Amino acid sequence: MKPATNPTSGPVLQLRDVSRVHGSGEATVHALRGVSLAVAAGELVAVMGPSGSGKSTLLTLAGGLDTPTSGQVVVEGVELGTLTRAAVAALRRRSVGYVFQDLNLIPALTAAENVSLPRELDGVRTRVARREALDALAEVGIADLADRFPDDMSGGQQQRVAIARALVGPRRLVLADEPTGALDSETGESVLRLLRRRCDEGGASGVLVTHEARHAAWADRVVFLRDGVLVDDTGYAPSADSLLGHGVGQ
Amino acid sequence: MSIRHGLLALLEDGPRYGYQLRAEFESRTGGTWPLNVGQVYTTLARLERDELVQPAGADDEGHVFYALTAGGHTEVRTWFTTPVQRESRPRDELAIKLALAIATPGVDVRAVVQRQRTDTLRALRDYTRLKARADEPDLAWLLVLDSLIFQAEAEVRWLDHCEARLTRRTPAPSPSRARTGGARRTTEEASR
Predict the structure, then answer these.
(1) What is the pLDDT of residues B67-116, one digit of tens each?
(2) Cβ distance of A234 and B125 shorter than 8 Å
């Protein structure tokens, strides 16, 4: 069994009654309303919902890229609202990795340089950052491509680089927004397997925004947003053994 | 599919007795279709009546073996070379339920859709979990799992589609408009 809730370390990410309002008066839009969500260490949570339901807003708030109108965002025990802008930026670089649909890899840098860049920005020495980058690339299964440029890689390989970059160094929280976007279904699945394994074995936690049920199914639980409200939740997965015991088709 | 054809296909591999057929049927389909041994013996009796199988001796413990007749071999070949007819599949309870929900007063169709979607996603997640730990060589089991996964996924997509249609017809009783994209468009269309 995975540590669905670990009382000693607490959740890696916690949203407490978070709301986000854009604009005012007639043009007011409630992007999120009173959303509460906790993601434990080793847990992968998928967020589904129609376009405009607030999925991406949830992700940008979770990553400290935007500030809630009310409520609290807590990353690794630190409430972001209590920090200065610079401290949020530092926490973000240290603790949070992003994987976007458009990968944002820098074409003039090799795979290893792309992955080590955020660590160097964090003040880690080049040699150490490079070693961390090589470790991260090895973890996603493309150690041999470290010195290749993004343009010389397949879409699936580039996506692995983006994931390695999201997970390099001590980061434990991965936020992924449609990370399988442009990939064919087989490659998309391998990306999900990778995220899954990082959570199972690497102790990472993840929030995955996707509109593909088949991809969301790799998560431990799936939550649904509609009009900015969390409307439903599959709950945690039972163990695979108990699934086999019941006869899966029943 | 009928149990009848499943048993015939297993017998193509050589004579078997009832318990063996039941065990193999379940293991090859990953336990997705549990059979009781009574069903197996009733089916074998009918197959014998139709001259598709015949008794082929017994072992020391008294298990009676069955083997395919020439007609049985032909039946198996025909089964594998003929597509499964859609109308022979069981009726879709969910589609019927939703159709009735729309016409039944006091039923919140959207809630029916959402509950079903959560449940189907839960199943989809559980199948995916089994697939993640399935052994690569067990191809038969993987194929069965993939089939369950694709069916569940199709059901979720269809439910999404139902919800979008319902939203177009009857705007959600929500006080504010959704922020961007499709949801806003559907609200506007509905208010026209």
Answers:
(1) 999 999 999 888 888 887 766 556 678 888 888 888 788 888 888 899 89
(2) yes
CB proximity list for A110: less than 8 A, separation 6 or greater: A146, A147, A148, A149
Q: Are A120 and A129 in contact (CB under 8 A)?
A: yes
Domain ranges of chain B: 3-81, 93-170
Q: Please say whether the beta carbons of A209 and A177 come within 8 A.
A: yes
CA–CA distance, A111 with A128 (Å, rounded to integer): 16
**First-to-last C-alpha distance (Å) of chain A:** 23
User: How far apart are the C-alpha atoms of B38 and B25, rounded to whole Å?
Assistant: 14
Give the A:B interface size as CB pairs under 8 Å.
113
Q: Test A234 with B164 for CB contact under 8 angstroms.
A: no
Residue A135 tokens, joined:
């470790």
Q: Which residue among A231, A237, A249 sits closest to B125, beta carbon to beta carbon?
A: A237
Residues with Cβ < 8 Å from A27, sequence gap 6 or more? none
Q: What is the second-level CATH architecture of the domain B3-81?
A: Orthogonal Bundle (1.10)
ipTM: 0.75
